[in-house]
Amino acid sequence: MGNPILLVENAGYGTTPECPKAKFKPRDICIYRKKQVVVALVVPPGHPAEYALADSRKEPRPLMITRPVHIVTYICALDGDPRGHLIPERMLKATGKHYEGELFETAAAP
Q: Which of 52, 71, 73, 80 is 20 to 30 A from residue 25's alpha carbon, by CA?
């Protein structure tokens, strides 16, 4: 009798840790390549962006992830673009503004 096939559908649920080193917070408006972006999520160093996105949506974490990086990154929303963009902290410039409106569905996986 052979071994049964193990079927794993997801990596479970979790919570993304806080990132005290982050320069920006969710809903901050920043400049990225001369365009305004709204920070939707902060991804701490060593944490996959897919896990942070799944945790914020209260969905199970995916099995397939990108390699975690060792810098603070952000999942940002550009005006008129429904997708999320994974942007490193060094590429964002502060504007001092804060987004007060309703944060829209900030995008699919980066």
A: 80
